[in-house]
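Fill in residues.
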Protein backbone atom coordinates (compact mmCIF):
# COMPACT_ATOMS: atom_id res chain seq x y z
CA UNK A 1 0.00 0.00 0.00
CA UNK A 2 1.31 3.47 -0.93
CA UNK A 3 0.34 6.34 1.39
CA UNK A 4 -0.30 9.89 0.25
CA UNK A 5 3.24 10.91 1.25
CA UNK A 6 4.71 8.18 -0.96
CA UNK A 7 5.62 5.83 1.89
CA UNK A 8 5.10 2.12 1.20
CA UNK A 9 3.46 0.04 3.93
CA UNK A 10 3.01 -3.73 3.91
CA UNK A 11 -0.46 -5.15 4.60
CA UNK A 12 0.69 -7.77 7.10
CA UNK A 13 -2.85 -8.56 8.18
CA UNK A 14 -3.66 -10.24 4.83
CA UNK A 15 -3.28 -14.02 4.57
CA UNK A 16 -3.45 -15.98 1.31
CA UNK A 17 -5.07 -19.42 1.26
CA UNK A 18 -3.64 -21.72 -1.39
CA UNK A 19 -6.50 -24.22 -1.04
CA UNK A 20 -9.23 -21.66 -1.84
CA UNK A 21 -7.12 -19.19 -3.79
CA UNK A 22 -8.53 -16.35 -1.73
CA UNK A 23 -7.31 -13.61 0.60
CA UNK A 24 -8.37 -13.46 4.24
CA UNK A 25 -8.00 -10.78 6.89
CA UNK A 26 -6.35 -12.50 9.87
CA UNK A 27 -7.69 -10.17 12.63
CA UNK A 28 -11.25 -10.28 11.25
CA UNK A 29 -11.09 -14.06 10.81
CA UNK A 30 -10.00 -14.52 14.43
CA UNK A 31 -12.28 -12.02 16.16
CA UNK A 32 -15.36 -12.09 13.93
CA UNK A 33 -16.68 -10.02 11.02
CA UNK A 34 -19.37 -10.23 8.34
CA UNK A 35 -16.97 -9.20 5.61
CA UNK A 36 -16.02 -11.69 2.91
CA UNK A 37 -12.39 -11.20 4.06
CA UNK A 38 -13.28 -13.22 7.16
CA UNK A 39 -15.91 -15.63 5.78
CA UNK A 40 -15.53 -16.97 2.25
CA UNK A 41 -12.41 -15.02 1.30
CA UNK A 42 -11.75 -12.40 -1.31
CA UNK A 43 -10.77 -13.24 -4.90
CA UNK A 44 -12.07 -10.35 -6.99
CA UNK A 45 -8.61 -9.38 -8.25
CA UNK A 46 -9.93 -6.87 -10.76
CA UNK A 47 -11.23 -4.63 -7.98
CA UNK A 48 -8.68 -5.72 -5.34
CA UNK A 49 -7.21 -2.33 -4.51
CA UNK A 50 -10.58 -0.66 -4.06
CA UNK A 51 -12.15 -3.46 -1.99
CA UNK A 52 -9.08 -3.96 0.24
CA UNK A 53 -8.82 -0.23 0.95
CA UNK A 54 -12.50 -0.12 1.82
CA UNK A 55 -12.14 -3.07 4.17
CA UNK A 56 -9.11 -1.74 6.04
CA UNK A 57 -10.88 1.59 6.61
CA UNK A 58 -13.93 -0.09 8.15
CA UNK A 59 -14.51 0.27 11.88
CA UNK A 60 -14.82 -3.48 12.42
CA UNK A 61 -11.41 -4.13 10.85
CA UNK A 62 -9.75 -1.40 12.93
CA UNK A 63 -11.30 -2.79 16.12
CA UNK A 64 -10.11 -6.31 15.32
CA UNK A 65 -6.57 -5.08 14.57
CA UNK A 66 -6.38 -3.28 17.93
CA UNK A 67 -7.74 -6.37 19.69
CA UNK A 68 -5.15 -8.58 18.04
CA UNK A 69 -2.36 -6.17 18.93
CA UNK A 70 -3.52 -6.04 22.53
CA UNK A 71 -3.74 -9.84 22.68
CA UNK A 72 -0.21 -10.01 21.26
CA UNK A 73 1.31 -8.43 24.36
CA UNK A 74 3.33 -10.84 26.47
CA UNK A 75 1.20 -10.29 29.54
CA UNK A 76 -1.95 -11.54 27.84
CA UNK A 77 -0.45 -14.43 25.88
CA UNK A 78 -1.02 -17.99 27.03
CA UNK A 79 2.76 -18.57 26.85
CA UNK A 80 3.53 -15.38 28.76
CA UNK A 81 5.30 -17.28 31.53
CA UNK A 82 7.49 -19.10 29.00
CA UNK A 83 8.30 -15.86 27.15
CA UNK A 84 9.20 -14.17 30.42
CA UNK A 85 11.49 -17.06 31.34
CA UNK A 86 13.20 -16.97 27.95
CA UNK A 87 13.79 -13.21 28.21
CA UNK A 88 15.16 -13.65 31.71
CA UNK A 89 17.59 -16.34 30.50
CA UNK A 90 18.66 -14.17 27.57
CA UNK A 91 19.37 -11.20 29.84
CA UNK A 92 21.26 -13.41 32.27
CA UNK A 93 23.65 -14.78 29.64
CA UNK A 94 24.00 -11.35 28.02
CA UNK A 95 25.21 -9.99 31.36
CA UNK A 96 27.68 -12.87 31.66
CA UNK A 97 29.02 -12.31 28.13
CA UNK A 98 29.26 -8.57 28.71
CA UNK A 99 31.74 -9.19 31.53
CA UNK A 100 33.63 -11.86 29.59
CA UNK A 101 33.97 -9.59 26.56
CA UNK A 102 35.27 -6.74 28.74
CA UNK A 103 38.00 -9.01 30.16
CA UNK A 104 38.94 -10.38 26.73
CA UNK A 105 39.16 -6.88 25.24
CA UNK A 106 41.29 -5.57 28.11
CA UNK A 107 43.78 -8.45 28.14
CA UNK A 108 44.15 -8.54 24.37
CA UNK A 109 44.63 -4.76 24.12
CA UNK A 110 47.48 -5.02 26.67
CA UNK A 111 49.06 -7.99 24.90
CA UNK A 112 48.78 -10.19 27.99
CA UNK A 113 48.57 -13.98 28.02
CA UNK A 114 45.16 -15.52 28.74
CA UNK A 115 45.92 -19.07 29.80
CA UNK A 116 47.71 -20.45 32.80
CA UNK A 117 48.73 -23.92 33.88
CA UNK A 118 45.17 -24.84 34.92
CA UNK A 119 41.62 -23.86 33.96
CA UNK A 120 40.14 -24.06 37.45
CA UNK A 121 38.71 -21.20 39.47
CA UNK A 122 40.31 -20.77 42.86
CA UNK A 123 43.76 -21.88 41.65
CA UNK A 124 46.60 -19.33 41.70
CA UNK A 125 47.97 -20.69 38.39
CA UNK A 126 44.80 -20.37 36.31
CA UNK A 127 46.05 -17.50 34.12
CA UNK A 128 45.09 -13.88 33.56
CA UNK A 129 41.63 -14.57 32.10
CA UNK A 130 40.22 -16.52 35.03
CA UNK A 131 42.16 -14.35 37.48
CA UNK A 132 40.50 -11.21 36.07
CA UNK A 133 37.05 -12.77 36.36
CA UNK A 134 37.78 -13.73 39.98
CA UNK A 135 38.91 -10.17 40.70
CA UNK A 136 35.73 -8.67 39.22
CA UNK A 137 33.64 -11.20 41.14
CA UNK A 138 34.98 -9.77 44.41
CA UNK A 139 32.98 -6.60 43.70
CA UNK A 140 30.24 -8.02 41.45
CA UNK A 141 27.70 -10.29 43.22
CA UNK A 142 26.18 -11.32 39.87
CA UNK A 143 29.47 -12.68 38.49
CA UNK A 144 30.40 -14.17 41.86
CA UNK A 145 27.12 -16.10 41.90
CA UNK A 146 27.65 -17.26 38.31
CA UNK A 147 31.20 -18.49 39.01
CA UNK A 148 30.05 -20.29 42.14
CA UNK A 149 27.27 -22.00 40.18
CA UNK A 150 29.03 -22.77 36.88
CA UNK A 151 32.74 -22.14 37.56
CA UNK A 152 34.22 -25.62 37.67
CA UNK A 153 31.42 -27.67 36.11
CA UNK A 154 33.67 -29.11 33.42
CA UNK A 155 32.74 -30.21 29.90
CA UNK A 156 29.10 -30.62 28.94
CA UNK A 157 27.88 -27.59 30.88
CA UNK A 158 27.34 -24.10 29.49
CA UNK A 159 29.20 -21.44 31.47
CA UNK A 160 30.79 -19.10 28.86
CA UNK A 161 33.92 -19.11 31.02
CA UNK A 162 35.99 -21.67 29.14
CA UNK A 163 39.04 -21.15 26.96
CA UNK A 164 37.01 -21.93 23.84
CA UNK A 165 34.78 -18.93 24.52
CA UNK A 166 37.53 -16.32 24.81
CA UNK A 167 39.33 -17.77 21.77
CA UNK A 168 36.14 -17.33 19.76
CA UNK A 169 35.77 -13.77 21.02
CA UNK A 170 39.38 -13.00 20.10
CA UNK A 171 38.75 -14.31 16.60
CA UNK A 172 35.53 -12.29 16.25
CA UNK A 173 37.23 -9.12 17.52
CA UNK A 174 40.24 -9.63 15.24
CA UNK A 175 38.00 -10.15 12.22
CA UNK A 176 36.05 -7.02 13.08
CA UNK A 177 39.22 -4.94 13.53
CA UNK A 178 40.63 -6.22 10.23
CA UNK A 179 37.34 -5.44 8.49
CA UNK A 180 37.51 -1.84 9.74
CA UNK A 181 41.16 -1.51 8.68
CA UNK A 182 40.45 -2.91 5.21
CA UNK A 183 37.48 -0.56 4.84
CA UNK A 184 39.66 2.43 5.77
CA UNK A 185 42.35 1.34 3.28
CA UNK A 186 39.82 0.95 0.50
CA UNK A 187 38.42 4.41 1.25
CA UNK A 188 41.95 5.85 1.19
CA UNK A 189 42.52 3.94 -2.10
CA UNK A 190 46.33 4.32 -2.16
CA UNK A 191 48.53 2.53 0.38
CA UNK A 192 52.04 1.28 1.06
CA UNK A 193 53.36 -1.86 2.74
CA UNK A 194 56.05 -2.51 5.35
CA UNK A 195 57.28 -6.09 5.60
CA UNK A 196 59.90 -7.53 7.94
CA UNK A 197 60.91 -11.01 9.01
CA UNK A 198 61.76 -11.82 12.62
CA UNK A 199 61.72 -14.93 14.86
CA UNK A 200 59.32 -15.10 17.79
CA UNK A 201 60.13 -16.37 21.30
CA UNK A 202 59.79 -19.97 20.11
CA UNK A 203 62.39 -19.28 17.35
CA UNK A 204 59.79 -19.64 14.59
CA UNK A 205 60.36 -17.21 11.75
CA UNK A 206 57.44 -14.86 11.12
CA UNK A 207 56.82 -12.28 8.43
CA UNK A 208 55.07 -9.22 9.83
CA UNK A 209 52.81 -7.40 7.37
CA UNK A 210 52.04 -3.70 7.99
CA UNK A 211 50.00 -1.34 5.81
CA UNK A 212 50.43 2.43 5.80
CA UNK A 213 47.82 4.80 4.36
CA UNK A 214 46.44 8.31 4.76
CA UNK A 215 42.95 8.97 6.12
CA UNK A 216 40.58 11.56 4.67
CA UNK A 217 41.69 14.16 7.22
CA UNK A 218 45.32 13.79 6.08
CA UNK A 219 46.51 11.75 9.06
CA UNK A 220 49.01 8.97 8.19
CA UNK A 221 48.11 5.62 9.72
CA UNK A 222 50.13 2.42 10.13
CA UNK A 223 48.19 -0.79 10.81
CA UNK A 224 49.55 -4.23 11.56
CA UNK A 225 47.61 -6.76 9.53
CA UNK A 226 48.97 -10.22 10.30
CA UNK A 227 51.91 -12.57 10.84
CA UNK A 228 52.83 -14.93 8.02
CA UNK A 229 54.64 -17.96 9.51
CA UNK A 230 57.22 -20.02 7.64
CA UNK A 231 57.15 -17.84 4.53
CA UNK A 232 60.77 -18.62 3.62
CA UNK A 233 63.64 -16.24 2.94
CA UNK A 234 63.85 -16.33 -0.84
CA UNK A 235 62.53 -13.32 -2.72
CA UNK A 236 60.19 -15.51 -4.82
CA UNK A 237 58.56 -16.95 -1.70
CA UNK A 238 58.27 -13.53 -0.08
CA UNK A 239 56.67 -12.08 -3.20
CA UNK A 240 54.10 -14.88 -3.30
CA UNK A 241 53.26 -14.29 0.37
CA UNK A 242 52.85 -10.54 -0.10
CA UNK A 243 50.61 -10.90 -3.15
CA UNK A 244 48.56 -13.64 -1.45
CA UNK A 245 48.04 -11.42 1.59
CA UNK A 246 46.95 -8.46 -0.56
CA UNK A 247 44.47 -10.72 -2.34
CA UNK A 248 43.23 -12.13 0.97
CA UNK A 249 42.28 -8.67 2.22
CA UNK A 250 40.93 -7.58 -1.18
CA UNK A 251 43.61 -4.92 -1.64
CA UNK A 252 44.38 -4.10 -5.27
CA UNK A 253 48.17 -4.11 -5.95
CA UNK A 254 47.53 -1.45 -8.63
CA UNK A 255 47.00 1.09 -5.82
CA UNK A 256 50.26 0.18 -4.05
CA UNK A 257 52.43 3.29 -4.06
CA UNK A 258 55.35 2.48 -1.74
CA UNK A 259 57.16 -0.43 -0.13
CA UNK A 260 59.62 -0.36 2.75
CA UNK A 261 61.87 -3.18 3.99
CA UNK A 262 65.25 -3.65 5.62
CA UNK A 263 68.48 -3.63 3.62
CA UNK A 264 68.85 -7.40 3.17
CA UNK A 265 69.52 -8.49 -0.40
CA UNK A 266 66.44 -10.71 -0.56
CA UNK A 267 64.28 -7.69 0.35
CA UNK A 268 66.08 -4.67 -1.13
CA UNK A 269 67.91 -6.34 -4.02
CA UNK A 270 67.84 -4.10 -7.10
CA UNK A 271 67.42 -6.96 -9.58
CA UNK A 272 65.79 -9.96 -7.90
CA UNK A 273 64.84 -8.73 -4.43
CA UNK A 274 61.29 -8.46 -3.14
CA UNK A 275 61.09 -4.77 -4.00
CA UNK A 276 62.21 -5.42 -7.59
CA UNK A 277 59.65 -8.19 -8.07
CA UNK A 278 56.87 -6.00 -6.67
CA UNK A 279 57.90 -3.20 -9.05
CA UNK A 280 57.58 -5.61 -11.97
CA UNK A 281 53.93 -6.04 -10.97
CA UNK A 282 53.37 -2.36 -10.22
CA UNK A 283 56.07 0.10 -11.39
CA UNK A 284 54.52 2.84 -9.23
CA UNK A 285 55.35 0.99 -6.00
CA UNK A 286 58.49 2.93 -5.08
CA UNK A 287 60.93 1.30 -2.69
CA UNK A 288 62.04 3.29 0.37
CA UNK A 289 64.56 1.57 2.69
CA UNK A 290 63.69 1.64 6.37
CA UNK A 291 65.50 4.74 7.67
CA UNK A 292 65.71 3.47 11.26
CA UNK A 293 67.15 0.13 10.13
CA UNK A 294 69.67 1.93 7.92
CA UNK A 295 70.74 4.01 10.92
CA UNK A 296 71.30 0.80 12.89
CA UNK A 297 73.57 -0.45 10.12
CA UNK A 298 75.49 2.83 10.28
CA UNK A 299 76.06 2.32 13.99
CA UNK A 300 77.14 -1.28 13.41
CA UNK A 301 79.75 -0.20 10.87
CA UNK A 302 81.07 2.53 13.15
CA UNK A 303 81.28 0.17 16.14
CA UNK A 304 83.50 -2.17 14.15
CA UNK A 305 85.58 0.54 12.46
CA UNK A 306 88.65 0.09 14.67
CA UNK A 307 90.11 -2.20 17.32
CA UNK A 308 89.53 0.18 20.24
CA UNK A 309 85.80 0.46 19.42
CA UNK A 310 85.39 -3.31 19.23
CA UNK A 311 87.24 -3.79 22.52
CA UNK A 312 85.12 -1.13 24.22
CA UNK A 313 81.80 -2.82 23.46
CA UNK A 314 83.31 -6.18 24.46
CA UNK A 315 84.18 -4.63 27.83
CA UNK A 316 80.59 -3.45 28.33
CA UNK A 317 79.20 -6.91 27.58
CA UNK A 318 81.83 -8.63 29.74
CA UNK A 319 81.00 -6.35 32.67
CA UNK A 320 77.31 -7.20 32.36
CA UNK A 321 78.07 -10.92 32.06
CA UNK A 322 80.33 -10.79 35.13
CA UNK A 323 77.86 -9.08 37.46
CA UNK A 324 74.70 -10.77 36.17
CA UNK A 325 76.21 -14.25 36.60
CA UNK A 326 75.86 -14.02 40.40
CA UNK A 327 73.37 -12.39 42.72
CA UNK A 328 76.21 -11.77 45.18
CA UNK A 329 78.21 -9.81 42.60
CA UNK A 330 75.10 -7.87 41.57
CA UNK A 331 74.45 -6.88 45.19
CA UNK A 332 78.04 -5.63 45.49
CA UNK A 333 77.53 -3.38 42.47
CA UNK A 334 75.23 -0.88 44.24
CA UNK A 335 73.96 0.18 40.86
CA UNK A 336 73.05 -1.34 37.53
CA UNK A 337 74.66 -2.36 34.25
CA UNK A 338 72.94 -3.32 31.02
CA UNK A 339 73.73 -5.65 28.17
CA UNK A 340 74.18 -4.92 24.49
CA UNK A 341 71.98 -5.89 21.58
CA UNK A 342 73.10 -6.84 18.09
CA UNK A 343 70.17 -5.11 16.39
CA UNK A 344 68.64 -2.63 18.87
CA UNK A 345 71.00 0.31 19.21
CA UNK A 346 68.79 1.81 21.88
CA UNK A 347 70.08 -1.06 24.07
CA UNK A 348 73.67 0.02 23.36
CA UNK A 349 72.75 3.57 24.29
CA UNK A 350 71.29 2.34 27.58
CA UNK A 351 74.40 0.22 28.23
CA UNK A 352 76.77 3.17 27.64
CA UNK A 353 74.67 5.49 29.81
CA UNK A 354 74.62 2.88 32.55
CA UNK A 355 78.40 2.40 32.42
CA UNK A 356 79.03 6.16 32.50
CA UNK A 357 76.54 6.81 35.29
CA UNK A 358 77.72 3.94 37.52
CA UNK A 359 81.43 4.12 36.70
CA UNK A 360 82.66 4.62 40.26
CA UNK A 361 80.30 1.97 41.64
CA UNK A 362 81.50 -0.55 39.06
CA UNK A 363 85.19 0.14 39.79
CA UNK A 364 84.60 -0.05 43.53
CA UNK A 365 82.67 -3.34 43.21
CA UNK A 366 85.43 -4.90 41.08
CA UNK A 367 88.08 -3.81 43.58
CA UNK A 368 86.11 -5.26 46.47
CA UNK A 369 85.56 -8.59 44.70
CA UNK A 370 89.20 -8.87 43.58
CA UNK A 371 90.42 -8.28 47.16
CA UNK A 372 87.90 -10.63 48.78
CA UNK A 373 89.66 -13.77 50.04
CA UNK A 374 86.40 -15.69 50.08
CA UNK A 375 85.89 -15.35 46.33
CA UNK A 376 86.94 -18.07 43.92
CA UNK A 377 90.31 -17.54 42.23
CA UNK A 378 88.66 -17.52 38.80
CA UNK A 379 86.23 -14.82 39.93
CA UNK A 380 89.02 -12.68 41.41
CA UNK A 381 91.07 -13.12 38.26
CA UNK A 382 88.16 -12.05 36.07
CA UNK A 383 87.50 -9.03 38.29
CA UNK A 384 91.18 -8.00 38.09
CA UNK A 385 91.10 -8.30 34.30
CA UNK A 386 88.00 -6.12 34.00
CA UNK A 387 89.42 -3.61 36.45
CA UNK A 388 92.63 -3.39 34.44
CA UNK A 389 90.65 -2.62 31.29
CA UNK A 390 88.57 0.02 33.06
CA UNK A 391 91.63 1.73 34.55
CA UNK A 392 92.68 2.97 31.12
CA UNK A 393 92.06 6.54 30.01
CA UNK A 394 91.21 5.16 26.58
CA UNK A 395 88.29 3.17 28.03
CA UNK A 396 86.98 6.14 30.01
CA UNK A 397 87.26 8.38 26.95
CA UNK A 398 85.41 5.84 24.78
CA UNK A 399 82.64 5.66 27.39
CA UNK A 400 82.11 9.44 27.31
CA UNK A 401 82.46 9.58 23.53
CA UNK A 402 80.05 6.74 22.73
CA UNK A 403 77.54 7.95 25.35
CA UNK A 404 77.26 11.27 23.50
CA UNK A 405 77.18 9.69 20.04
CA UNK A 406 74.66 6.96 20.88
CA UNK A 407 72.39 9.38 22.74
CA UNK A 408 72.06 11.45 19.57
CA UNK A 409 71.72 8.37 17.35
CA UNK A 410 69.05 6.84 19.59
CA UNK A 411 66.98 10.02 19.67
CA UNK A 412 67.20 10.25 15.89
CA UNK A 413 66.23 6.58 15.53
CA UNK A 414 63.16 7.03 17.75
CA UNK A 415 62.08 10.01 15.68
CA UNK A 416 62.56 8.05 12.46
CA UNK A 417 60.17 5.38 13.76
CA UNK A 418 57.27 7.78 14.39
CA UNK A 419 54.16 7.13 12.30
CA UNK A 420 53.63 10.67 11.06
CA UNK A 421 57.17 11.20 9.76
CA UNK A 422 57.73 12.10 6.10
CA UNK A 423 60.71 11.82 3.74
CA UNK A 424 61.63 15.50 4.13
CA UNK A 425 61.91 15.08 7.90
CA UNK A 426 63.98 11.90 7.42
CA UNK A 427 66.47 13.80 5.25
CA UNK A 428 66.61 16.67 7.75
CA UNK A 429 67.28 14.28 10.64
CA UNK A 430 70.08 12.58 8.73
CA UNK A 431 71.58 15.95 7.78
CA UNK A 432 71.40 17.10 11.39
CA UNK A 433 73.15 13.95 12.59
CA UNK A 434 75.83 14.29 9.89
CA UNK A 435 76.43 17.91 10.93
CA UNK A 436 76.72 16.87 14.59
CA UNK A 437 79.24 14.10 13.79
CA UNK A 438 81.35 16.39 11.60
CA UNK A 439 81.31 19.10 14.28
CA UNK A 440 83.06 16.69 16.64
CA UNK A 441 85.95 16.06 14.23
CA UNK A 442 88.43 18.52 15.68
CA UNK A 443 90.91 18.55 18.51
CA UNK A 444 88.88 21.02 20.58
CA UNK A 445 85.93 18.60 20.78
CA UNK A 446 88.34 15.79 21.59
CA UNK A 447 89.84 17.92 24.39
CA UNK A 448 86.40 18.55 25.90
CA UNK A 449 85.61 14.83 25.99
CA UNK A 450 89.11 14.07 27.28
CA UNK A 451 88.76 16.53 30.18
CA UNK A 452 85.44 14.93 31.16
CA UNK A 453 87.06 11.48 31.08
CA UNK A 454 89.99 12.63 33.24
CA UNK A 455 87.65 14.25 35.75
CA UNK A 456 85.50 11.13 35.97
CA UNK A 457 88.31 8.60 36.40
CA UNK A 458 91.22 10.59 37.80
CA UNK A 459 93.48 8.91 35.19
CA UNK A 460 95.67 11.35 33.27
CA UNK A 461 97.92 9.17 31.10
CA UNK A 462 97.20 6.93 28.14
CA UNK A 463 98.68 3.48 27.68
CA UNK A 464 101.85 3.28 25.60
CA UNK A 465 100.66 1.67 22.37
CA UNK A 466 104.24 1.34 21.12
CA UNK A 467 104.95 -1.35 23.71
CA UNK A 468 102.49 -3.67 22.00
CA UNK A 469 103.47 -2.69 18.49
CA UNK A 470 104.88 -5.51 16.41
CA UNK A 471 108.27 -4.59 15.02
CA UNK A 472 108.63 -4.95 11.29
CA UNK A 473 111.72 -6.64 9.93
CA UNK A 474 114.11 -4.10 8.39
CA UNK A 475 115.71 -5.18 5.13
CA UNK A 476 119.37 -4.51 4.35
CA UNK A 477 118.58 -1.61 2.04
CA UNK A 478 116.10 0.03 4.43
CA UNK A 479 116.33 2.18 7.50
CA UNK A 480 113.78 3.24 10.05
CA UNK A 481 114.77 6.87 10.22
CA UNK A 482 111.54 7.98 8.53
CA UNK A 483 109.26 5.93 10.80
CA UNK A 484 106.86 8.19 12.69
CA UNK A 485 105.98 7.34 16.28
CA UNK A 486 102.76 8.89 17.53
CA UNK A 487 102.20 9.83 21.12
CA UNK A 488 99.54 7.86 22.97
CA UNK A 489 97.11 10.78 22.74
CA UNK A 490 97.71 11.40 19.03
CA UNK A 491 97.40 7.70 18.35
CA UNK A 492 93.93 7.67 19.98
CA UNK A 493 92.87 10.75 18.03
CA UNK A 494 94.08 9.57 14.62
CA UNK A 495 93.47 5.81 14.75
CA UNK A 496 90.31 5.72 16.86
CA UNK A 497 88.52 9.05 17.30
CA UNK A 498 88.79 10.28 13.70
CA UNK A 499 88.30 6.79 12.27
CA UNK A 500 84.96 6.32 14.06
CA UNK A 501 83.72 9.80 13.16
CA UNK A 502 84.79 9.44 9.52
CA UNK A 503 83.08 6.06 9.29
CA UNK A 504 79.91 7.45 10.82
CA UNK A 505 79.91 10.46 8.50
CA UNK A 506 80.57 8.34 5.42
CA UNK A 507 77.86 5.79 6.20
CA UNK A 508 75.32 8.48 7.10
CA UNK A 509 75.92 10.31 3.80
CA UNK A 510 75.73 7.01 1.97
CA UNK A 511 72.42 6.13 3.63
CA UNK A 512 71.04 9.61 3.09
Amino acid sequence: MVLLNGEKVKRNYLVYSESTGSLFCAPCKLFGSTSMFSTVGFSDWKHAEKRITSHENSQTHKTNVLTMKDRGKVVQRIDSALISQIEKEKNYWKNVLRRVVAVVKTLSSRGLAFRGKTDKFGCNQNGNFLMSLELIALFDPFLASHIEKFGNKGKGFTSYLSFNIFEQFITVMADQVLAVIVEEIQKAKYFSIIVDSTPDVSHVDQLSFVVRYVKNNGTPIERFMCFLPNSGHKSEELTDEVMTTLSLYDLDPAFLRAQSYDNASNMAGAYSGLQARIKEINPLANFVPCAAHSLNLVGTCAASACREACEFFDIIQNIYNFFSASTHRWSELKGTVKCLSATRWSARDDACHSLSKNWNNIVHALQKISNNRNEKPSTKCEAVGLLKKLNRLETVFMTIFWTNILDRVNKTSNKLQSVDIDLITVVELYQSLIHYVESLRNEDSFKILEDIAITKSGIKDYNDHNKRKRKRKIHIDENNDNEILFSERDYLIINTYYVILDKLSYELKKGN
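The chain has a mean pLDDT of 85.
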